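chain below, 333 aa
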Amino acid sequence: MFAYVMRRLLMLIPVLLGMTLITFSIVHLIPGNPAQVILGETASAQAIADLEENMGLNEPYFVQYSIYLIDLLQGDLGTSLRSKSAISSEIWPYIAATFELTVFAMLFAIIIGVNAGIISAWKQNTWFDYLAMLIALIGVSMPVFWLALMEQWVFAQELGWLPAYGRQESRDPIAAITHLYVLDSLIHLDFDRTVTILKHLVLPSIALGTIPMAIIARMTRSSMLEVMKSDYIRTVRAKGSGQLLVIYKHALKNAMIPVLTVIGLQTGVLLGGAILTETIFSWPGIGRYVYEAISYRDYPVIQSGILVIAFIFVMINLIVDILYKKIDPRIKY
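prediction:
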């Protein structure tokens, strides 16, 4: 296991280098003078020259890349043109917001999707199987923005059960420590605030987790049906094992490899920033952060945001590969 993990970590080195090269090239792929594009057509020649010097655009390409790589290794993502602040210091709250939302969305998707898929495979060709797969088909086809707006209308406006936007009550903000508000409220032992923050998470988590839930349910059903036909499952049943023991102890573990792939991919997508969900629910996540940077032509932020999102995808894939080996020791590098 250790050798497998080390080989996967070594494979990350060229991937990460290629990722930094691509993200760095974004500014240089802008048609015309990047400094002119950033400052606008009315900028003076002196302002353009100052920005070129500040961003190192007057240096050769590979010299600029080397400086960029050295800065990255030191944790320096550059400076935002809009806020004039270090990106490394202002980006974490946005990452934390998206991470918190993604965790709850994926918990919803995994708990509902995996169990719905298992029961559908167990009760194949019954009314529950048809109903679950119909709901999964609707879920994967439903536009996220429409579902989010319907949730706000029904549960926030009409019923008044849940808040429609934000991460917390704006009149009583929490003293952020980790910027993971659920964790911060628990650190402060403020359980009333924990309940309030969880209420703010419900609607965006369901909106964001519906499509992954539907995909996971369909994949779990398909994988479970294939495993349930295996010889070793018939052997386990012949020994008199109960149905729940057969399904959850023997069949599910072997059916989890393709399901785990889907879970990893969907987690990476959500962590990459769900712009529609974050915009509709006024959720200050990484997707909304990059979207606003695009509106303001804040290219250092766009560059850093893309780098962070790509890094998250790479790390998620690494974790999934390690879990493959943990679930099935027969997997070789």
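The chain has a mean pLDDT of 82. The first helix runs from residue 2 to 28.
thats it, cya
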